[in-house]
Amino acid sequence: MPRRIVIAIDGPAGAGKSTVARRVAARLGFVYVDTGAMYRAVGLWAMRAGVKLDDVHKLEQLAAAARIEFEAGSTRVFLNGEDVTEAIRTPEVASAASKISVYGGVRRALVAEQRRLARDASVVMEGRDIGTVVFPEADVKIFLDAAPQTRAERRLRELRERGRQPVAEQVIAEMEERDQRDRSRAEAPLLQAPDAVYLDTTALSIEEVVEAVLRIVRQRIGNGQEPGQAITPQP
User: In terms of Cα–Cα distance, which of 169, 127, 131, 136 is closest to 152?
Assistant: First the structure.
């Protein structure tokens, strides 16, 4: 059985992780794993079940019981067999996910689920602690970043494309609050792994970032092969 490959992409909100990871996974034929969607799925389940977001014990139980799957070749997310791709993308669910992600028991349960996913297939996994906590031994580690103003503008554009009418000041304030919470939490804070490649995406297009990541992948594990070809790990 061939060895599974893990590509870890970390960084703050608005750095381009989701779009880049999704496209890189598609180019390589890997499964794209959005770990933020996993916290959103648990947050959605908690809201539906009437579990308060400060009830740590019940939230940990939900996280441990959650079976979260990602469909290869798509962005669909399944929670206990239900397609929740659209349901987890509301502002309310995003807020719930951010709040429950600080609880150590929730994080440990979802880390176990993330590792299970990577046992079943080669993955491009993005989040905030993939290269430091979830897969410190990942084959490739990338840390994407961008100037705060650029990240806020990207978030605003994303919300507008979804048909919403965001207030710029509110979006910026929420992003600053999320950055602070991610970087200061006691359990798995947002950090760049010492061996991760840092990419500032401020002045780059999505495709330029994707190509940069693919170059790094080829250098580390691709034996010089072009994207789209089967990657053979070096011995």
Answer: 169
